[in-house]
Amino acid sequence: MFNWRRQPSGPGPAVLDESYLERLSKHLGEAVLRDILSDGLLELSDRVAQTQELAAAGDSAGLGRLVHDLSGMAGHLGLAQLGHLAVDAERFLRDEDANLLVAVQPLQAATPVALAALKDFLDAPPGD
What is the C-alpha R_g of the chain? Predict the structure, then answer.
């Protein structure tokens, strides 16, 4: 089982913002939150895969829009670390000479950990 409650090694935000998800659960209800997170898990995976395609195709405008969307999506799903990496990628992409594949590499590398954290959170017994 992935330990989503731990802080990442080194400085920076936790993989999963547990306090944010707890607040959402209180506001929306646990069942609704779990539905939203389940849908988000699939959508996030698809969108991160699209970053590779857009980067390889040299579509910096499309990639910039997608990375911006990913930063918001990660925030809404409580994936703090991934959200920060998306914001970093968005800043990096503002340089017109930016290497698009390099810009999205940290985001792509962190996604499996973020998805595992979200899946573990969803697999945890309700109220845990």
Answer: 15
Residue 3, pLDDT score: 39
Q: The whole model's pTM is what?
A: 0.84
| Interval 58-75: pLDDT, tens | 999 999 999 999 999 999
Show the low-confidence residues of the chain (pLDDT under 50): 1-8
The C-alpha atoms of residue 123 and residue 22 are separated, in whole angstroms, by: 15
b/e burial code for range 23-54 (CB count within 10 A of at least 16 → b):
ebbeeeeeeebeeebeebbeebeebbeebbeb
Question: CB-based contacts of 47: which residues, under 8 Å, 6+ apart?
Answer: 66, 69, 70, 73
Q: What is the dihedral of CA 51, 106, 64, 41, to 10 degrees?
A: 60
Owner of token pair 């609704």: 32
